[in-house]
Design brief:
The structure is a homodimer. Chain A is α+β, with helices and mostly antiparallel strands. A 3-stranded antiparallel β-sheet of chain A has the order 1-3-2. Chains A and B meet through helix 1, helix 2 and helix 5 of A and helix 1, helix 2 and helix 5 of B. The structure holds a DNA duplex.
Chain lengths: 89, 89
DNA sequence: CATCTATTTAGACTTTTTTCTAAATAGATG
DNA sequence: CATCTATTTAGAAAAAAGTCTAAATAGATG
């Protein structure tokens, strides 16, 4: 959604770890959860935040929900940060 | 300080705006505050968070405290995000 | 179709974050 | 040196975020 949502989503370490996991490709919610010491409900909560921030896609196959990294929003943040770094008056 | 602190610091819109202001160069705490509808105490709180995240430097001159952007930490985040984008297996 | 499996939703609880007012500090200046 | 100006600190209050358990949903399968 908004720029603020994206940064907010990135501010939590569990969510950043999830994104790192997804670097290697699609993963189901359960598979993601197995990497953390948290309930499925909590993982679901984090996935929803990542999804609302457009940082991940989801695709449903059978009774699994697969999550995948969406790099296009990451690119936008990269741009913001790059502009912060460069162009000093 | 830590990577998490940096992302946390960036997750607040007021703090991101402060960083944008500092793109144009050093600015005193009061000057920064004048751009926001917040008390000086609240601005001071945000500046402390940015400082703890090493996103800004401070220098004291007379009874003013000047803040300045520290881009080196931004570079580290840029790297993290770039690695997230590239290197897909 | 009864039920098993994967995931999400609802609601409660705790912790963290953001903000304020009031007081404290620290340097500058009449 | 009394006090004014700039900023920070302390403490309180409110809002937001993260987590859990229990229940709901939704598809798969015997």
């Amino acid at each position: 959604m908004s720029f603020a949502d994206t940064f907010k989503a990135l501010s939590d370490s569990a969510r950043r770890e999830i994104l790192q996991l997804l670097k290697d490709g699609k993963m189901s919610a359960g598979e993601i959860g197995s990497h953390f010491d948290m309930t499925g409900a909590t993982i679901s909560y984090h996935l929803k935040i990542l999804k609302n921030a457009d940082l991940v896609w989801e695709t449903k196959v059978k009774n699994y929900v697969y999550y995948e990294l969406n790099t296009s929003v990451v690119e936008e943040i990269l741009l913001w940060l790059t502009e912060l770094t460069g162009e000093k008056k």
